[in-house]
Amino acid sequence: MNLAALLDRIAVDVAPEVGRGAVADYIPALARIEPHRFGMAVAEVDGGLHGVGDWERPFSVQSMSKVFTLALVLSRGDGVWARVGREPSGDPFNSLVQLEHEDGIPRNPFINAGALVVTDELARRGDAVDALLAFLREESGRPDIDVDPEVAESEAGHADRNRALAYFMASYGNMRHPVPSVLDQYVRQCSIAMSCADVARSALFLARHGVRNDGTRLLELSAAKRINAVMLTCGTYDAAGEFAYRVGLPGKSGVGGGILAVVPGRCAVCVWSPGLDARGNSVAGVSALDRFTTLTGWSIF
């Protein structure tokens, strides 16, 4: 299959969708992003890399980072599942409601409360962002991947809801480190800037059932399978059902406009377009992935 030509076709097909939706203006640094950007990259398990549009332009990964922190935590064991669930929330990604009903245990690791717990767990052996950056730089082959300080500062200044989530969980004993430290690491984690190519290459371990780009194993096959499963059921906030219906792949979105998707055994895909729908997912990004699975026939269903 000529993936380069396929991506060119997808870019043409979704062009009317590019610019639709709204950028994440509750984070001032993201509010300034040009909404008419579009990029898409496919990294194949055999090393092939293909892209279209702004596929090499860095953007804020935001919640896509949660896939990688979860993988790093699970590479050390599965104890984190005592602190966070694996069920869809059905509520917005920054909701406080379920925490009170469920004694400070977040519903899944991809809503903000759950991701804070994962970051807290990763920090047990040092700074979580240092560990994450080391992994991403190695997997992507890009030693210059780093936190965008402007986005981090902007996000830190508008983190009251996440701060509330963390303190609420701390009141139930579900924070191991001081909340300000965890929140700082979480904000920096979400503020990492990567391109579609970087994200796709970094996520290939999920397409390879836990094996990294250098051939070493990060995760047992079962752990990689379970991350993909949680991505499918929880990775696109409270639109996971619609995403599974349209795209049919494990996916994780971020309010920076990126979406990561995994085709087990074949490839990892990242698409970026900043305009978001009401649930925080890229309008053009979902459409592009819909076209991708339709045209390739690559779906887990």
From TrEMBL:
Family stated for the protein in its record: Belongs to the glutaminase family.
Subunit description: Homotetramer.
Catalysis: reaction(s): L-glutamine + H2O = L-glutamate + NH4(+)
GO-annotated biological processes: glutamate biosynthetic process; L-glutamine catabolic process
Binding site for substrate: 63, 112, 155, 162, 186, 237, 255
Acetylation recorded as keyword: yes
Protein name per UniProt: Glutaminase
NCBIfam families: Gln_ase (TIGR03814), PRK00971.1-1 (NF002132), PRK00971.1-2 (NF002133)
Top class in the EC scheme: hydrolase
Record-listed E.C. numbers: 3.5.1.2
Pfam assignment, any one: Glutaminase
Regions crossing the membrane: none
Keyword annotations: Acetylation, Hydrolase
GO MF term set: glutaminase activity
